[in-house]
Amino acid sequence: MADTIKGEYYYGMGRRKTAVARVRLFPNGDGSITVNGKPAQNYFGLRDTHLATIAAPLRALDLNNTYTMTVRVVGGGTTGQAGAIRHALARALVRQNAEFKAALRKAGYLTRDPRMKERKKPGLKRARKAPQYTKR
C-alpha cells in the first residue's frame, strides 16, 4: 500500500529494544495508519494500548486525522515495535515542522529509550534468577 500513495512525505526512523521502525508521514491525509502492509488495528490486534502508544505524538500536538502514515517495522515484539513507531513518528513530525520539537521533547517522544534486555549471567538461570538454594 505504501507504493500506491503518491506525493511528498516526511521520513522518520525510530528504535526501541531490538525493534526498528521506518515511518512515512503524508500530510493532508485521512488519519489511516498502515503497518507492514496491514491496517494498524489488524497488525496489533486487540491491544488498544499499542494503538494509543503509536498515536501519542499526534495527540500531544492535536493533529489527529491530519496525516496518513505508512510504517515498516522489523524486530522485537509488539510492545517494542509500538515504541519504535512512536519514536519514528515524532522524528518525522519534527522533520515536517521544527516548531513541534519543543512539545515532543517535553513529552519524551524524541528520546530513544535506552533500556535493553539484560544478558544472561554464567551460573544463573536467567539474567538475575539464581538456582534454588537447598540447605540439605
UniProtKB/TrEMBL annotation:
This is Small ribosomal subunit protein uS9. Residues 117-136 have a biased composition (Basic residues). The keyword Ribonucleoprotein applies. One of its GO terms (molecular function) is RNA binding. Residues 111-136 are annotated as: Disordered. The lineage of its organism: Bacteria, Bacillati, Chloroflexota, Ktedonobacteria, Ktedonobacterales. It comes from the Bacteria. Keywords: Ribonucleoprotein, Ribosomal protein. Belongs to the universal ribosomal protein uS9 family. It comes from Reticulibacter mediterranei. One of its GO terms (cellular component) is cytosolic small ribosomal subunit. Transmembrane segments: none annotated. PROSITE patterns: RIBOSOMAL_S9 (PS00360). One of its GO terms (biological process) is translation.
